Amino acid sequence: MTTAPAVLPTTARSLEHLLAETQAQHRLPSVVAGIVRAGELVWTGTAGSVVSDPAGGDTPAAGTQYRIGSITKTFVAAGVLRCAEDGLVDLDDPVGRHLPELGTRGVGALTVGQLLGQASGLQAETDGPWWERTAGEGWDQLRALLGPGALRHRAGVRFHYSNVGYGVLGELLGRVRGASWDEVVAEQFLRPLGMDRTSTRPQAPAAQGCAVHPWADVVLPEPEHDAGAMAPAGQLWSTVEDLARWAGVVADGAGVLRRGTVEAMREPQAVDDARGAAWGAGYGLGLQLWNTGGRRFAGHSGSMPGFVAMLRVDVETSDAVLALTNSTTGFGDLPVRLLAAFTDAEPAWPSPWRPRAVDADVLELLGPWYWGPAPLVLRAGRDGSLELSGLTGRARSSRFARDAATGAWRGLDDYYAGELLRPVRGADGSVSHLDLASFRLTRTPYDPGADVPGGVDPAGWCPAT
Fold this sequence. Notes:
Elements: H1 9-26, E1 30-37, E2 40-48, E3 66-67, H2 72-85, H3 112-116, H4 139-143, H5 163-177, H6 181-193, E4 210-212, E5 219-221, E6 237-238, H7 240-252, H8 259-265, E7 270-271, E8 281-283, E9 288-292, E10 295-304, E11 307-314, E12 320-325, H9 334-345, H10 360-363, E13 367-371, E14 374-380, E15 386-390, E16 398-402, E17 409-411, E18 420-425, E19 431-436, E20 439-442
Antiparallel strand pairs: 1-2, 1-12, 3-6, 4-5, 7-8, 8-9, 9-10, 10-11, 11-12, 13-14, 14-15, 15-16, 16-17, 17-18, 18-19, 19-20
Helix pairs in contact: 1-9, 2-5, 2-6, 5-6, 7-8
């Protein structure tokens, strides 16, 4: 990996001004932010001074802990998906298979994937006191709430954010691995990534959570406690420096998750349908997703009394922004503005083109193909895949990877995801056509020499009459 240089002085000044402006306008006790490029934390900034003492304490820094709230869910999801990588859990498993006390109906019948993707229909919050502000209880107490009335919607049909669902997933993760959920997260992610400032309870230096009075410039300390069985929904504390490492996991797995697993995490499971508008937000497998003008971002926000946090990664470039504050009401759209200001000032540098080896049996598949009269083209991807797209306009497209089990090519995304592309050879050994699902692609439009379904009129192409 090429080390990314620090941002230009003019860019740093612009980002610092934006941070200071937001701290003043939103009356934030303190705020810390960072920008990540090429896996490196290239800029950090701080504003405000109320960190450990509500009367005006220590100056914040990139190593100061803040509570990160629901960003915790990304760690729990990663742990569950590592179980899937190891063959211990399947995303289609009903959770009752791993937590038998939940039974085989109701909550016990919800799948692991539905809970990860916020599409389970399970209630959003616990019954009773506001769990974020009161000490938590154990799994037995949470389980008692998971009766038939806990299901608010039919599973799998709509986005419905559920903190309770991640309480269930945290228990499942611990049960499968034979340890508590946070011990699993520490062993599999925090220690390998060097995230030694991420913990379930605050470790000095750590910010004091604050509520800012809406009509006066005074603050009130917010409570902090162990949330018990609900801790997997939002208990972790972390720093900008540690979360910069976690941004690398969201980008490409950073060696602790397979790249395919991360790509699955970023695939929408449920769309947050804003009353029929074009979707702008959704949820993957443990990741929030944002679609801004066709540009995709992944990560998670977090809020707990006294704190708001954000981790947001540009899926295309892997540029990321981190922001942490110790104010209950938060910093508005600061993370979006910071990342936009950085990328506008310093666009990501493209990787240089270099020749590479391509197998002969791949080269003979490349170039124009036709589905009937519709022109398509196959290109060799930089990652060894085949890329199918329209030659002159929009068309059903996909990337394909070699499928070892069949010797064909299997679709990775878009319309043909999971479908097989099979080169068919003639008597002379050359590729005569491609079979793709029920479609046949030929080298010329409706090639009369190919086995086109339905046949080709022997009169051939002629003027319309």
